[in-house]
From TrEMBL:
It comes from the Bacteria. PANTHER family: D,D-DIPEPTIDE TRANSPORT ATP-BINDING PROTEIN DDPF-RELATED, TRANSPORT ATP-BINDING PROTEIN. Residues 2-218 form the ABC transporter domain. Keywords: ATP-binding, Nucleotide-binding, Transport. This is ABC transporter ATP-binding protein. GO terms for molecular function: ATP binding. Belongs to the ABC transporter superfamily. PROSITE patterns: ABC_TRANSPORTER_2.
Length: 220
């Protein structure tokens, strides 16, 4: 279970954008978090991914409370969660070819021997050719770069996947392809999914249930 318990968070302690929000996600479950831009749903997603420390509340991962944030989080908790952001160019090192971008988490966790096989496997899964793997972010389209970012999020086989507006900048065919990759991964690995967005139709078709952002969010 991934649990967010009465989370208050933001970037100004006097004006938090998230106030006492609770949300739970079961293994294998897909939950959509629906709301307009600026409502705080992306901040909540970052808290869930251990990328943003809340002012109050707690995150519980598989029964264990989070014991740190970003690089101070224990490796076992940090690697249990894969994240895909809305803007791939903001989350990709422009110096790295896509092959190395995907491999980053493996190298960071001392699993270099897995790089060739795992990167090749995921490149096929997300639809990247060998020629594209040798290109840097500025040499590929947004859709191709987002495919690489999704592969990077999956490379350590996380138990929880957070997609924060993953398809907002993509065309319909690329959106369908990446959603299909996520669904195949969930079916194979039994991973839970938190999909954040403002496209009601997409989230309600994709997810088992949708949470509508209010104060606090209410389940649909």
């Amino acid at each position: 279970m991934l649990e967010l318990d009465t989370i208050t968070a933001g970037y100004d302690r006097l004006r938090p954008v998230v106030r006492e929000v609770s949300l739970t996600l079961a293994p294998g479950e897909a939950v959509g978090l629906l709301g307009p831009s600026g409502c705080g749903k992306s901040t909540l997603a970052k808290v869930a991914a251990l990328l943003h420390r809340p002012y109050a509340g707690r995150v519980v991962i598989d029964g264990e409370p989070a014991r740190g944030w970003r690089h101070t989080a224990p490796r076992a908790q940090r690697t249990a969660i894969g994240v895909v952001f809305q803007q791939p160019r903001m989350s990709a090192d422009p110096r790295l070819p896509l092959r190395d971008l995907i491999a980053e988490p493996l190298r960071a966790t001392g699993r270099r021997d897995e790089v060739p096989a795992r990167v090749g496997e995921l490149a096929d899964t997300v639809g990247l050719t060998g020629e594209l793997l040798g290109r840097r972010p500025h040499e590929v389209s947004d859709g191709q770069l987002q495919r690489a970012c999704l592969a990077r999020a999956l490379v350590l086989r996380p138990r929880w996947l957070i997609c924060d507006e993953m398809t907002a900048m993509l065309d319909a065919s690329t959106t369908a392809a990446l959603v299909a990759v996520v669904e195949e991964y969930r079916a194979t690995e039994g991973a839970g999914l938190l999909a954040v967005g403002h496209d009601r139709i997409l989230l309600e078709r994709w997810c088992d249930r949708t949470v509508h952002w209010q104060t606090p969010p209410t389940a649909a």
